[in-house]
């Protein structure tokens, strides 16, 4: 029994510390109440809500005002009968809001799937070629990146240079609404294509060559920064106490990786041999990567599509973005619109019953990136590539899951080549960790043990970072806390799959 566990056992009434983790994904959001008794972390969903894109005059936007209202509902519900020490928000990457000279949101925040960047990408890449973007920022060039969006906005609305005081990434925007404090948290900004690789400030070469005003970017702060207290007017409105607003690892993947219990996968022998464990954060998007001490900006990393983003504590995540459960979500949405009533569990069961797929798709093919009739797009991909065409929902779901597992496997293999490090195991966290079929397929395809969980990885990571920022836990003990707090399941490469 270690000292912390002994102290807990000897304490008759351990003090419970509570924080709120607001986790906003690209399709839904939730407010999670995290309670820490010194040994275990307990997560309870307080409020869940949809996060749907708004289409207006051919453009896609986020409903920032609606999301803020939902966050406030969660705060009110959580604080009814218990003190809350802190609150932190994490979101998807790359998107942002424009703040006017009066301190208010200047216009609607665009969705990363908006089409406007396609009109200006060629000019941006003429001024700043793709390989130079990667060398300077460590980010893989992509039209959804903040730098492409910001450049496009300034081309189409140059008056923003005078009208705007700053831009705030999505979690920074919500932290600002809650605390009144403007800050740019490092992990979310490391997705932007605007920061110096491995640094903590905007890259002056990028800004100069693209004529982006440096004053639009407020100072960068490290993950785990306590910004201040919840605004007094919100405390009164929500009938809650003066909780702290904390900029944790506010990029959802950075937050999820903060909850990865590496100790559960690596033996002492593995650690001595410098073997690493990879992570796959599986949700609407899937992100496969490893943690490194510094960005990897080699030609091999660029050519293989890897990107670099910041970790809590100052490290680096070398990773690849893969179109994830978005494919299955869109299939389910289409089938249910036609009169089916499939749950995610139903689709996994149908995929199990269908047996091994006869075909394969590339999940990152551009045809799968936009909303629409995803089952037909899968079938058309198979026709176009001369493969057997799946028919039933179960066959299509199985093909999608096998193709995702294959994409994961290829990414893990490439990670070893690019990083020069052996990968001994894979941690699969997030909503996809509940999909036992996907976990088994991933173990088989990668040839490595897969450890699934925690499911609510982003919320767990956010809570751990907040509690560490408040001095309520030692973050170095996170693996022990996660193992005691959540069910982790292990899948071996020889696991049987129907």
From TrEMBL:
Domain Carbohydrate kinase FGGY C-terminal: 279-469
Source taxon at top rank: Bacteria
GO molecular function: kinase activity
Pfam families listed in its UniProt record: FGGY_C, FGGY_N
Keyword annotations of the record: ATP-binding, Kinase, Nucleotide-binding, Rhamnose metabolism, Transferase
Domain Carbohydrate kinase FGGY N-terminal: 19-257
Family (UniProt): Belongs to the FGGY kinase family.
Name of protein: Carbohydrate kinase
Species, as recorded: Saccharibacillus endophyticus
